Amino acid sequence: MAKRVFFSFHYKDVVEFRANVVRNHWMTKPNREICGYYDASIWESARKQGDIALKRLINGGLDQTTNTCVLIGSQTYERPWVRYELLKSFKKGNNIFGVHINSIKGKNQKTKIKGANPLEYVGVTFSDSGKTATLWERVDGDWVEYENIDGSASYRVDVAKKYHGNGYNLGNFYNIYDWIADNGYNNLAQYAFRGRAKIPLVLG
What we know:
Elements: E1 4-8, H1 11-15, H2 18-27, E2 33-35, H3 40-49, H4 51-62, E3 67-72, H5 80-92, E4 95-100, E5 122-126, E6 132-139, E7 142-145, E8 154-159, E9 167-169, E10 176-178, H6 184-192, E11 201-203
Parallel strand pairs: 1-2, 1-3, 3-4, 4-10
Antiparallel strand pairs: 5-6, 5-9, 6-7, 6-8, 8-11
């Protein structure tokens, strides 16, 4: 059975073509399935219905996926729904990996400098007992609890002792690649199918 990948991205990168390069590459690979909403009409319809509809759309896309790939452009790290998708993926237990796409030529045939890593703007803390995880996001330089998933920033876990009482941005747990420098066309599939080696928590 094919494993499914959810793509998280900023829509501007779809308009500028870069996100589609990665997405279309994935569709050409054997036994690969993707999720993520590149159909603007579906996304806009959900937006008009409000946040609940958007969450349902994203949650449905993440359902039965094992991997989340965030496509990193210039403003990806700022996008609220990208943050939701990353933290929801983390809580769900998906393997997460990032791909810098600004090295891909856009419609204007130009590249851009790398964007900030969005995984460094969302994070998790673990209680002293290691039995509770709390999700966070970075806003204007400060870390604030993220309560947009299931109505609470905290949930039950069971983590190794070395994580007790500590906090991390998610960039500590997952790998980031560059589509051009790391030869993404030929190499990225292996990273998505390595599983959960870098995830430190066992869900309780």
